[in-house]
Amino acid sequence: MDGVLYNSMYFHARAWHKAMAAFGIDMAEEEAFLLEGMRGVDIVKMKMEQQHARQLTPEEAQHMYDHKSELVFSYGKIEKVDGVEEFMRQLHADGLRIGVVTGSGQRSLFERLSNDFPGLITPENIITSYDVERGKPYPDPYIKGMEKVGVQPADTIVIENAPLGVRAAVAAGCYTLAVNTGPLQPQALACEGAHQVFDDMHQALQWWKQTTKSV
Residues 190-212: what's their mean pLDDT? Predict the structure, then answer.
């Protein structure tokens, strides 16, 4: 969702830095792009344990994550990633079913998905941080997503933008396209096993059209 459907990661990076600082945790904005895909509460727990050797309760972690989420939405309207809807409509026209697998816990964005992508995304095909105990980089979210959509790994293409998300998708046995919508070097996605790495959605769409045309 973040960084693939919505151009929200720069907002998230700033919010992670400010929110964690409010709780005495040092987290650079750049780190948010490397940890993207993990469940937000898991990031909070990991950072607290790393820097303060303290294990948070689920309630404490959720409170800190909620503060971060509030900051994200205070920065302004979150727009769609350029070209993503066009790509999705092409996939849909070619007969693919579309699911969303996100490590996010932002309920307000979940509610927007069906309205922002009419005819493409339905609530029953959305996997969020609340649906799994182990988030990315474990394969569990993608395994759960495939169960919901009703497909096998060999029939699944994952579109990711984050290293941990790529690792999770590859571990789940899926063919994985990485679209580098953030500041990371392409190698950060390729080294996690992405089968293809693209600079943007338009490039990915052109690859898809050429690939399906030649089949």
Answer: 97
